[in-house]
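Lecture 7, part 2: worked example. A protein chain together with iron/sulfur cluster.
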Amino acid sequence: MKRPKIAFFDFACCEGCQLQVANIGEALLDILDIADVVEFREVMSEKWDQSFDIAVVEGSITDHHAIERIKMIRSRSKLLIAYGSCATIGGINGMKNNFELDEIRKEVYGKDYKYFDTIKTMPVHHVVKVDYFVNGCPIYPPEFITVLKAALSGIPYDVPDKSVCIECKFNENICMYEKGLTCMGPITRAGCNSWCINNGNICYGCRGMVSNPNEKSAKDILEKYKIDLNLILNRINMYNKCRELEDNEQKRY
Ligand code: SF4
Ligand code: SF4
Ligand code: SF4
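Predicted complex, written out as structure tokens:
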């Protein structure tokens, strides 16, 4: 049987998700028993100019060149996995969308800003079809392996659409609100096994929002703990600003 070929690509991002994959260790070796990695800039210099079975894409689409490049990658690949919040929901790159594009360009490039192309940040699925999503900033390694195995086996994977609180309760954590902190767990998609809370941090909402957040409960929590709504809205924007494009300008594939 022909060994599947996997290629990794990056767009606008910090490359932290690539690093997570490179550090996965043994579980990744199991994958390499049955598949070949043919391109992965962070860990190898080889590049095979060919088609591949699975493209694994990190980062957001933030300029016209990126639009052309992701279309080219899609045309060469049978399946496409978007991984990391930058790729799946726009992530922190989406904060750019809070500003006028010229304002951003002047700030970054100074007087010659007009020579530097930029567009509003988009997640990958706003430009090409994505078959699998691995949310998170960075990705949660066990979920990445699950998704890669699903892609190699030809079975679907759905990002969980329940809140992080559910996993957090199973892990018997003391709620951050009880400690006087705020946490985005109630409206954030699970799948990371409440990673941050297990390690003493709050949830920042990096996996994106559940599709049907329980607004009433969220309001009750804000009232009970006397939390300013603007604080929560700012936190939502930190990772989820690109959600606004779904309704307004862009069509989801
Ligand atoms: S999702 Fe987070 S860790 Fe991954 S590339 Fe983007 S900013 Fe970096
Ligand atoms: S709000 Fe945060 S700390 Fe509290 S249960 Fe939900 S995820 Fe856990
Ligand atoms: S707990 Fe929240 S911020 Fe941490 S990985 Fe999970 S979704 Fe992301």
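The longest strand covers residues 52-58. Residues 13-17, 58, 84-86, 91-92, 137-138 surround iron/sulfur cluster (ligand 1) (CB under 6 Å). Keep this in mind for problem set question 3.
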